[in-house]
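Need the bound structure for zinc ion, inputs here:
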Amino acid sequence: MALDIRTFGDPVLKTRAAPVESFDESLLRLTEDMLATMRDNEGVGLAANQVGRLKRVLVAAVEDDEYVIVNPVLTYSAETTETAPEGCLSIPGIQVDVERPTAVTVSGQDVSGEPLLIEASDLLARILQHEIDHLDGVLILDRTDRQSRKAAMREWREHLLAQQS
Ligand code: ZN
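Answer from helper R.:
Posting the output first, comments after.
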């Protein structure tokens, strides 16, 4: 079942999510709902904060592969970085440039609690860093420069006004 996505201004997006301790039926349902929500919105990633749940769970999709990572931890980040425009389902219509390492290793657990390790580069590396940021209450607006942030905030206010009218 697809869930409602929380948008910029909702305090849940600025809050750090708590580690998952029980790998139960409700966790399984949450991950299935998050995958459905990501697919419905044609997103490439989603963190639990974005559906109003403060649990350290993320989902991601690159080409035909889907990923579910519980309690993800960045264990390695490449020194090489790349700046590229990023969007966010919680800030629809807005893109800002974000500089990130081009490759990362993420450890965590799968939905049944088994350990997993993902070595990611390029797009997947960027998505995983973006979603782990969400779990720490960090948004792309916190990762861009002052000028881009101001421009994005102006666009966002226009987006909200357009929705109201
Ligand atoms: Zn996002």
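Comments: Strands lie at 45-47, 57-62, 65-77, 81-86, 96-101, 103-109, 115-121. The CA atoms of residues 10 and 100 lie 25 Å apart.
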